[in-house]
Structure formats: structure tokens, C-alpha cells
Design goal:
6% of the residues lie in helices and 42% in strands. It is built from 1 helix and 12 strands, in the order ββββββββββββα. The protein has a 5-stranded antiparallel sheet, with no helix packed on it. It has a 5-stranded antiparallel sheet with strand order 8-7-10-5-12. A hairpin with a 4-residue loop joins strand 7 and strand 8. The structure holds dTDP-4-keto-6-deoxyglucose (T46). DTDP-4-keto-6-deoxyglucose (T46) binds next to strand 4, strand 5 and strand 10.
């Protein structure tokens, strides 16, 4: 399996249609812009501002995170380096490949995180311990 790194994380612009009559925006995900078939959709909401979600990596799962409403920070770690990306636009998707540790924090009031996943839920796909993740990455 390819050893992924922070450079493999992509921020994808979701095509947006602004209504010419002032009725707002419509964003559409189609034509394989996420580069995988979506097998599962879930979302995080009503998250206390001091809560952290995530805190794990995936072996086979790829998924894209979208701040449908509000904002939150995504801390990303490839075993060597860390970076933080703030999501706050409903037409931006953060595509996280396999083998990247992620933590979601600093949720604003009313934030909703939509997740479009490449696989159905499988607990066996999770690496939930950071030391196990370092072993997995051999770093
Ligand atoms: C990720 C971040 C952004 C299910 O039964 N089905 C599901 O599809 C999911 C995602 C979770 N669950 C169960 C498993 C746990 O008993 O829901 C409970 C909470 O799951 P977890 O602690 O993994 O939730 P988060 O928000 O920390 O992580 C989730 C995803 O699991 C993860 O892949 O990247 O959202």
C-alpha cells in the first residue's frame, strides 16, 4: 500500500451554482470529483465547542469532509508532520486519503460536518491508538 503523506490531502472546490435571481447557492457533487464512489454519508452536529472528534486513522477508507454550516479545524498527521486546516465553506471538500491521522476540534456553534466516505462502516478499518498509527506508518 502507498505510504500517504500530508501532500496527498486535497482541498476540492465543489462546483457552485449561484442563483441569478438572488435565491442563493446550490453546490453539486458529481462526475467523480471526489475520485471515489460514495458508499456512506454521515454527519456530525450539535458538537460542543470543547469536544474533539476523530483521533484515529483509516487503513482503506478515504473520505471527504465538508463544513456544511459553521466552522471547525481538522488536524492532519502523516506520522512525520502535522498541519491544521480550517473548514468553513460549504463548497470546499477536504479529501483525506488512507493512512492519515485526523482530529477535529474548535467547532463553532451550529457547525455541521458532512462526511462522504468511500466504504461502509467497518471498525476493523480504524487505527485508534496513536502509537499503533506510528507503527503502521513505520515512523
Ligand atoms: C472520521 C470522523 C470525521 C457507526 O456506527 N457508524 C458510522 O458510520 C460511524 C462513522 C460511526 N459509528 C459508531 C462508532 C462509534 O460507536 O459511532 C460511534 C462514534 O464513532 P467515532 O468515535 O468513530 O466518531 P468520530 O466523530 O470520532 O469519527 C468519525 C468517523 O468514525 C471517522 O472515520 O474520520 O468522524
Amino acid at each position: 500500500m502507498k505510504q500517504t503523506e500530508l501532500n496527498d490531502i486535497e482541498e476540492i472546490s465543489i462546483p457552485k451554482i449561484s442563483d441569478p435571481d438572488g435565491r442563493g447557492n446550490l453546490a453539486v457533487i458529481e462526475n467523480n470529483i471526489l475520485q471515489y464512489k460514495i458508499k456512506r454519508v454521515y454527519y456530525l452536529y450539535d458538537i460542543p465547542s470543547d469536544a474533539t472528534r476523530g483521533g484515529h486513522a483509516h487503513i482503506n477508507l478515504r473520505q471527504s469532509l465538508i463544513a456544511l454550516s459553521g466552522s471547525f479545524d481538522v488536524v492532519l498527521d502523516d506520522g512525520k508532520e502535522r498541519k491544521t486546516i480550517t473548514l468553513n465553506k460549504p463548497n470546499k471538500a477536504l479529501l483525506i486519503p488512507t493512512g492519515i491521522w485526523r482530529e477535529l476540534e474548535n467547532f463553532s456553534s451550529g457547525a455541521v460536518c458532512l462526511v462522504l466516505a468511500s466504504e461502509v462502516y467497518d471498525e476493523a478499518d480504524y487505527i485508534r491508538g496513536y502509537e499503533d498509527f506510528k507503527l503502521f506508518k513505520n515512523t
